[in-house]
Amino acid sequence: MSRADFSDQFPPEIAARITGSVLNEGRATVVLDVAGLSDEQRADMERLIQDKLEAREDVGGVRVVMTAERKGPMIIAIGSGKGGVGKSTLTANLAIALARSGVKVGLVDADIYGPSQPVIFGSQGQKPDARDNKPVPIESKYGVPHLSMGHLVAPGKALAWRGPMAGSALGQLIEAHWSKDMEVLLVDLPPGTGDVQLTMIQKFKPAGAILVSTPQDLALIDAARAGQLFDTAGVEVIGLVENMSGYACPHCGEVSDPFGAGGVEAAAGKLDLPFLGRIPLDIAIRQGSDAGDPPAAGDSSMAEPFLRIAERLQAWISAKN
Ligand SMILES: Nc1ncnc2c1ncn2[C@@H]1O[C@H](COP(=O)(O)OP(=O)(O)OP(=O)(O)O)[C@@H](O)[C@H]1O
């Protein structure tokens, strides 16, 4: 058996996809990376390779092995143990903050129980176009193309889905037509440790995960459980974020801590995980999110905590690359 280089026989767009070739007693085997190609394009390429090589005197038969090695964006999951702790708010604002610093980033809203990204991005009611049966992400004015369960099904419909359906819907969103130069895909997971999280870990192993929690004990215990799931599956927990910590009264300025304060940082210390930062409880964050005007897109003081956490995430991403 000997390695053979057939690449000069093919046009560059095919040669670039040939990841290996072997000639063994007149039988040629060509390994073709078909990621991102439609079934028709795959069949055309296979035929062209077979015709070209079969025409050679030294080749008696040709086998084309197709692989779809995912070379797509780095997937980063944003999870939480409990619902309502601000996971979607963090995911959207982190994505916007990364985009502001030049990262090519997309967002997948995999929260079938409460897809809120269409509201945050002001894209509710829009239906993504489809090409080759795959959705095309919806552009946004914040430079973050996104796709949500909320774009695929009517509100409340997905609630009754069983595991495999939820998993395959997640697959559709992740394997959508993300642009070739997309570097990072942030995935807003449903809260807890259910089917969607398991599919995410098994099928689309994220490079890392961020966990969000409010500072009170119960939320923290659940967050630690979610962290364990990632850890067991060999997905690095990039760090913990404390949301809704410290409430500054808009009238008198006095800071109170409805959910306690500092609990997430302390928990991160105990679990030996990095602490990425805290986001205060501020009505402007809720109002901006509900109005499709996420704070990280603006220049108010509310953008700052998100920009700082995004900087830490970017440092982690750079170290990985
Ligand atoms: N720091 C904050 N200050 C004020 N309001 C906030 C803050 N973080 C989130 N919220 C608001 O709290 C509500 C829940 O937040 P969000 O939807 O981001 O949570 P979630 O963890 O994704 O919830 P779910 O599990 O339902 O998806 C939203 O109305 C959001 O605008």
From TrEMBL:
Domain of life: Bacteria
UniProt keywords, alphabetically: ATP-binding, Hydrolase, Iron, Iron-sulfur, Metal-binding, Nucleotide-binding
GO biological process: one example: iron-sulfur cluster assembly
Gene Ontology molecular-function annotations: 4 iron, 4 sulfur cluster binding; ATP binding; ATP hydrolysis activity; ATP-dependent FeS chaperone activity; metal ion binding
InterPro entries named in the record: Mrp/NBP35_ATP-bd (IPR019591), NUBPL-like (IPR044304), P-loop_NTPase (IPR027417), YlxH/NBP35 (IPR033756)
Matches recorded under Pfam families: ParA
Residues given in the record as ATP binding sites: G81, K82, G83, G84, V85, G86, K87, S88
Family assignment from sequence similarity: Belongs to the Mrp/NBP35 ATP-binding proteins family.
Function: Binds and transfers iron-sulfur (Fe-S) clusters to target apoproteins. Can hydrolyze ATP.
HAMAP family: Mrp_NBP35
Record's subunit section: Homodimer.
Name of the featured protein: Iron-sulfur cluster carrier protein
